[in-house]
Specification:
This is Membrane protein insertase YidC. The chain is mostly helical and about 325 residues long. Helix content is about 60%, strand content about 0%.
């Protein structure tokens, strides 16, 4: 079902490895690591506009937070009316809750796709020669062999701390667990720190009275556990830790740039007109026919205007 995602992820990674392989060599661990880094950069570059829309929507939510609180008090006993008025207020101010989740929703399949592709470079139960003879989606057997032989400071890119020694030895030579730990542990710590700062910066942008504010308060301490616990106890390869670090570093830099350049508050808010607040229309009275009073003379001294607007002239006797 996720084969299109696996092919797309491996295709982007293959393109970047072709470029860096020409510069550093096809079996260079740095070339393969850079192909993972630029896979992340390619995805995040495509998500710049959705991220800006997400920031604008979040700031609009901060502006209308007092009005939403008033609506919750006013319609506390009328849930359908509360939902209707809340939706109308959010729509009038350009708040899009679904669009705010779009960047995270699009990154999840790429993360799972990269994890799957990395695991398929070194399939469990197969020897080095057997894995090197099998293609891995877009990667041919030559690229698979190149990946298995690549080392980043002595550690294979698809190795992880809890990997069985039998799998570590199937990378074309004996691999010490300490070599994997020397690379994985610093990556885990730096990725956790980057995750903490990016999550804290995101939490600071939430409206203080919103329902998500209380939950977001703990995310700077919960999200980094993904890198630490995943790297220590779960099959998170070194390349996944590189992905995690690059993704959160991009998020942190992007937040600094976008939050500093976008206005803190949107332009003039759009008032919401409801049926209860719409004043009744009162028909206007027709204007009175203007008359002109002539000074002096007998009678009423008034002359009527003709339909064309000119004064009627009196006949001379």
């Amino acid at each position: 079902m996720l084969d299109p995602v696996y092919y797309a992820v491996s295709a982007v990674m293959w393109c970047w490895h072709q470029l860096f392989g020409l510069l550093l060599g096809p079996s260079s661990g740095v070339a393969w690591a850079l192909s993972v880094v630029f896979l992340v950069l390619t995805l995040r570059a495509l998500l710049i506009r959705p991220f800006i829309a997400q920031v604008r929507s979040a700031r609009a939510m901060r502006v209308i937070a007092p009005q939403l609180a008033e609506l919750r008090k006013l319609y506390a006993e009328d849930r359908p009316r509360l939902m209707k008025e809340t939706k109308a207020l959010q729509s009038a101010h350009g708040v899009n809750l679904v669009g705010g989740c779009l960047p995270a929703l699009l990154q999840l399949p790429v993360f799972l796709g990269l994890l799957h592709v990395l695991r398929y470079f070194n399939r469990p139960g197969l020897t080095f020669e057997q894995n090197a003879a099998l293609p891995n989606y877009v990667f041919g057997p030559d690229q698979v062999r190149s990946f298995l032989e690549a080392r980043l400071f002595g550690a294979p890119l698809s190795a992880y701390l809890s990997m069985p020694q039998q799998l570590l030895d199937s990378f074309g030579g004996h691999v010490e667990r300490v070599d994997v730990a020397v690379v994985a542990l610093p990556l885990m710590l730096v990725a956790a720190v980057a995750t903490h700062f990016s999550a804290r910066h995101s939490a600071q942008q939430q409206p203080p009275d919103s329902p998500t504010a209380s939950a977001m308060r703990f995310t700077p301490w919960i999200f980094p556990l993904g890198a630490l616990v995943g790297g220590l106890f779960f099959p998170f390869p070194i390349a996944i830790l590189i992905y995690w670090l690059t993704n959160n570093a991009w998020t942190l830099v992007q937040q600094r740039i976008v939050f500093s350049r976008l206005p803190t508050t949107p332009s003039a808010p759009v008032p919401v007109v409801t049926a209860a607040s719409t004043p009744a229309l009162v028909p206007a009275e027709p204007p009175a026919t203007p008359t002109v009073t002539q000074a002096g003379g007998g009678g009423t001294g008034k002359r009527k205007r003709h339909a064309s607007g000119h004064l009627r002239s009196r006949r001379r006797r």
